[in-house]
Amino acid sequence: MSLEKIESFIDEHHVLSLATSFGDELSVCNLFYAYKKKSPTFIVASSEDTTHIQHILKNKQVAGSVVLETKTVGKIQGLQFRGEFEALEDSELEKLYFKTFSYAIAMSPKLWQIKVNYFKFTDNRLGFGKKLFWERD
Predict the structure, then answer these.
(1) pLDDT tens for residues 26-49?
(2) What does the alpha-carbon distance between residue 26 and residue 109 come to, in Å, rounded to a whole number?
(3) φ, ψ of residue 33 in degrees (nearest 5)
(4) Rounded distance between C-alpha atoms, residue 104 and residue 87, angstroms
(5) 71-94: per-residue pLDDT in tens?
(6) How many CA atoms lie within 13 A of 110 on its CB side?
(7) Tens digit of each residue's pLDDT (9 = 90 or more) over 83-136
(8) Strand runs (DSSP E) across the chain, as ranges?
(9) Domains of the chain listed by start with CATH number
């Protein structure tokens, strides 16, 4: 049940914030995403010369968030996640990304996947500070 509510929120958005690290160096970036339901996986495009990709080539553990911007406390929603970031090798997920962002085909981007292992979803519409959790088995 929690995963369904979380995935419904994910479907309403298309940009995530991603945090990476290697040693003492930190990086954060924003990425457009497609999402594969029930497998929980984000698919993103990014160049290998970025700081965040250089980090994940050495440390594939990442964290991130997807948020709804609002000043209305009763409507606040936000998702935090943790997962493993790796090169995309699944043609089904590649098709999903290009179906979502058809214009990206012309750019021939390098695609990556984030295999999510943890979600924490805050949804004040369900009650102030209400949190739903999901973890991969």
Answers:
(1) 999 999 999 999 899 999 999 999
(2) 24
(3) -140, 155
(4) 17
(5) 998 899 999 999 999 999 999 999
(6) 8
(7) 999 999 999 999 999 999 999 988 889 999 999 999 999 989 888 889 999 999
(8) 15-22, 25-36, 41-45, 61-67, 77-87, 111-123, 131-135
(9) 2-135 (2.30.110.10)
Instruction: Quickly list H helices, the chain.
Output: 2-11, 51-56, 91-100
What's the sign of the alpha-carbon dihedral 42, 46, 48, 54?
negative
* Residue 126 confidence (pLDDT): 84
Structure tokens at 26: 């930190």
Burial (Cβ within 10 Å: 0-12, 13-18, ≥19) of residue 18: buried
Tokens of residue 111, six digits: 């695609």
Residue 127 DSSP class: S
